[in-house]
Amino acid sequence: MQCPKNQRISLVDGTLSDKLPVKHCPDCQGNWISHTSYEEWILSQPPRLAEPKLIASSSVTDSNFVPSPNDNRAALCPECQHYLTRARVFYNRCFYIERCMHCGGIWCDKGEWEVLEKLGLHTNIEQLFSHEWQSRVREMEYAEKERQATEAKLGAKVASMVFELAEILENHPNGDFGVAYLMRRFNK
Q1: Rounded to whole angstroms, how far apart are CA atoms 109 and 143?
Q2: How many CB atoms lie within 10 A of CB 179?
């Protein structure tokens, strides 16, 4: 079985957390998880459902994680030679998990499994490939870019006050009145 990212390298046996058998690339340090192995391993894990919003607000941070340079490289399934489909994971820096839609195997580049594990996504990988999840990830990315732009224009102190006021108004039963008031003030 060859590495999806470098067909010249043969994968070797390995394991991930809780004795999940994988095929490991000694060159790029990525891991191939067969559908069968993953499904058997999942049965031994406690069920958890992850929410993109919880992931974005998670206190889990790993400033050492840098997406692999191979993350943007197209890949073929080492089992059935179909192209792997990518799902974006939103975490400090975005990265992609890949899956074969034909045989169900999963490819994780170096360090990605560990991030999935910290975020509690390692037992919900199929969820990452859903349209709903990916739409919510795009919404979160847009919100983060908007937040950064607001901080750049207003400065961190004023932006912080704006974010706090926005949250207060959003949670207040008459918050729309406060927003209308502010809009009238700026239309003068």
Answers
A1: 27
A2: 15
